[in-house]
Amino acid sequence: MEHILGSNWTITPAGGSTGEAYYAQTDEKRLFLKRNSSPFLAVLSAEGIVPKLIWTKRLENGDVITAQEWLDGRELNPEEMKHPRVAALLSKIHHSTELLDMLMRLGKHPLTPDEILLDIKENQKVLDKVDPRIEIHQAVRYLEQEVWNVQHDVHVVCHCDTNHNNWMLSARDHLYLIDWDNAMVADPALDLGMLLYNYIPEDYWETWLKEYGIQPDSHMFQRMKWYSISQALSFIQWHQMRGEYHESSVRTEKLKTIMKQHGII
């Protein structure tokens, strides 16, 4: 990174799962750098969903480096996920034809429940040798039983990881949703299920969803439950594959909570 910016810049890793993000700083400027971000970043920046994209540079080896504003701010805490502005920003994302058109042009096809289930089952064949848990098999069986009842023909851009860590409030009071590496075209219930099951008390769901912009029905709730369980399984598998067994156990406890809440176990 130093040869791109010059020797007067201090560059430090920004963490994250990919190890491809960096903070860069001089006496006068601060940037957030990332290697091989998706072209999708430009549209997200134009829509004000992520901090402003400053420049993009292609290296001789084909890598692409992007530089965004490095803003003072903080991630939301779990309690703040109830705020109407979270619902409003997620609604803006889900209803953006510009974001959807760009992601489709980048080759993303609508992700269907049967595709998600197939991927989970294939991964589990390997992971059962490492850590077979009864709760995992109960969850997979539930997904199998309900997969054809949660089909939906409306697809939007989904962030796919609406964890509170990915919501950033700047010092200027602007809310952003960051880390779009796993974005997909899918049922909006995929994002909504994860967010509501993890952060919003169930007796407040209808109010939150009205702030999001819909009047929920039983099919929406059914789809949210299915996607919240499938996402929980996907995250458990992801951590197990990386040898992060403590994180996997934390996610498993969350999965058990959701399943007990709805009489699945």
TrEMBL record:
SUPFAM superfamilies for the chain: Protein kinase-like (PK-like)
Entry-linked InterPro entries: Aminoglycoside_PTrfase, CcrZ_PhaseVar_Mediator, Kinase-like_dom_sf
GO MF assignments: transferase activity
Domain of life assignment: Bacteria
Domain Aminoglycoside phosphotransferase, first and last residues per copy: 14-220
Lineage: Bacteria, Bacillati, Bacillota, Bacilli, Bacillales
Organism: Halobacillus litoralis
Keywords noted in UniProt: Transferase
Coiled-coil segments: none
Gene3D superfamilies: 3.90.1200.10
Signal peptide region: none
Name of the molecule in the record: Phosphotransferase
